[in-house]
């Protein structure tokens, strides 16, 4: 069974995003970029399934700028077998991403597609669900445990009330939650080996998908700055202040 893992290049989770002066988006100049953390978890899970003998091949795919190759090389260094870059300088919305990934799946016929539950830059949390709808495949979202048994896969999901386990027939779509696993670091020898693993270069046109934007971003603003707090001498003063603010009776 093949496993397809879509990985996105995003601003590193430690970097502080800056909004462009004209308010049209986030300034990516000279900002550290990394693989979306949920996608690292997805790559790790796919590799573990290969190590267990469940999967035969792990294919990482990224849609984005030429530099997304670095993200794909990271997946190859972690243990993916080959990679596909669908290169574009346009910002691609979840529906168009899902259409492209559906085309890749038509060619690859993977038994599992493991995505992150969300990209930490746009926080859309849509691509996996849209892909499942387009391909008419079962989906197990927010996975904290994945167990493949023959032609089906049990996915334990993190839901508000606790944990829910669903059994899906393969091929199936899974999206990862934080607690699924702890991704490995790529070792230096594996980083070197990854340089010679296959990386196919494609464009959205190769798949005949229109990636034109359907959403218009009106404005991007920084979150409001937190105002400084006030120190109080004792509980009485605190209660008096809360009463004065009208938040305590
Ligand atoms: P989102 O729906 O944008 O929150 O993204 C959910 C998941 O879809 C991510 O964790 C990735 O697995 C996948 N994904 C999103 N954008 C891309 C991209 N540009 N290239 C490859 N995979 C992506």
Give me the secondary-structure topology.
Blueprint: E1 2-6, E2 9-11, E3 18-19, E4 26-27, E5 33-35, H1 37-51, E6 57-64, H2 68-78, E7 82-87, H3 94-108, E8 112-116, H4 127-135, E9 139-149, E10 152-159, E11 162-169, E12 172-176, H5 188-194, E13 199-202, H6 235-245
Parallel strand pairs: 1-6, 1-8, 6-7, 7-13, 8-12, 9-12
Antiparallel strand pairs: 2-5, 3-4, 9-10, 10-11
Radius of gyration over alpha carbons? 21 Å
Spans where pLDDT lies below 50 across 5 or more residues: none
Secondary-structure element sequence?
A: EEEEEHEHEHEHEEEEHEH
The CATH topology annotation reads as: Rossmann fold
Number of helices: 6
Spatial arrangement of strands, main beta sheet: 11-10-9-12-8-1-6-7-13
Total of domains: 1
Q: What class, by secondary structure content?
A: alpha/beta
CATH architecture: 3-Layer(aba) Sandwich
Bound molecules: adenosine monophosphate
What does it look like?
The protein has 249 residues and is of the alpha/beta class. The protein has one domain: HUPs (Rossmann fold), CATH 3.40.50. The chain has a 9-stranded mixed sheet, with helices on both faces. A hairpin with a 2-residue loop joins strand 9 and strand 10. The protein starts with a strand and ends with a helix. The model has no long low-confidence stretch (mean pLDDT 96). The site of adenosine monophosphate has 23 residues, from helix 1, strand 6, helix 3, strand 8 and helix 4.
């Amino acid at each position: 069974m093949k496993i397809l893992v879509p990985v996105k290049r995003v601003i590193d989770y430690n970097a502080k995003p800056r909004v462009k002066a004209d308010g049209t988006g986030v300034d990516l100049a000279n900002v550290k970029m990394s693989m979306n953390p949920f996608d690292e978890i997805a790559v790790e899970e796919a590799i573990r399934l290969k190590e267990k003998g469940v999967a035969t091949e792990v294919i990482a795919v990224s849609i984005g700028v030429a530099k997304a190759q670095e993200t794909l090389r990271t997946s190859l260094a972690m243990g993916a077998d080959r990679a596909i870059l669908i290169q574009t300088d346009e910002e691609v919305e979840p529906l168009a991403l899902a259409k492209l990934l559906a085309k890749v799946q038509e060619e690859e016929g993977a038994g599992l597609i493991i995505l992150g539950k969300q990209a930490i830059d746009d926080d859309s949390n849509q691509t996996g669900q849209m892909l499942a709808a387009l391909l008419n495949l079962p989906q197990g979202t927010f996975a904290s445990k994945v167990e493949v048994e023959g032609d089906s896969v049990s996915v334990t999901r993190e839901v508000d009330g606790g944990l829910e386990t669903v059994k899906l027939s393969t091929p199936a779509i899974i999206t990862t939650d934080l607690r699924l696993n702890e991704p490995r670091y790529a070792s230096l020898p594996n980083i070197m080996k990854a340089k010679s693993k296959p990386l196919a270069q494609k464009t959205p046109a190769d798949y005949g998908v229109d990636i034109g934007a359907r959403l218009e971003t009106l404005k991007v603003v920084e979150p409001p700055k937190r105002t400084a707090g006030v120190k109080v001498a004792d509980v009485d003063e605190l209660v008096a202040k809360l009463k004065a603010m009208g938040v305590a009776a």
